[in-house]
Amino acid sequence: MNSATANKSLWQQITGDINCVFERDPAARTRFEVAVTYPGVHAVTIHRVSHRLWRNNWRLAARWLSAIGRFISNVDIHPGARIGERFFIDHGACVVIGETAIVGNDVTLYHGVTLGGTSWNKGKRHPTLDDGVLVGAGAKVLGNITIGKNARVGANSVVVQDVPDGCTVVGIPGKVVKVREAGQVNPYGIDLDHHLIPDPVSKVMGCLMERIDALEAALGAKALTAQADFQCDPDNEICESDCKSAVAANQ
Asked: At 222, which helix (H) or strand (E)?
């Protein structure tokens, strides 16, 4: 979160959060509906207040307010987490954001996302999400890593390493499967179409099947060659017996 975000008024930040939901969620009909019925908005609004308390060393009050927000919205955001403008938590269920996490502007999280730590170190131990990042449902982003601008994390992925700008990662652990082309922009702001994301497991399985087919074809050709090499004289019973034994041994 940059200094410009920190200096904005609470009302400006909350208004930005509501507006971004109305713009990104096709199910949203009015801004009033978003403000009163979206648990993700409630969680972010409460965090905006608790984070101000945290920054002013009202730590117990901040944690108490954060606990209330978790009870209301089922979203657990530590008051120490730094969150940028226009932050959208879609569906607002079972999302966890750790104390030292940093979230940029225009970031979207779906339900079940964890921005967690991998160390008991009291320093920076949670991830940083740059501007425009989108994290799919159930994904886990763990440790002091950075997810680059406009990157996407596929549903149920586990990311434990840095992700470059504009890349899509899927799998456990997360692997880069797609890089956004320069200048490519989605007019709707969100482009996590999972049916269009390359499937690395399916690709590997396809390669293995092709290899198996090639090996089977090679073995079949070898067997035919072996049979051709041991042609017997039908009038010689001893030769015929020896040839059959040789062919059987080469199959």
From this structure: helix 200-229
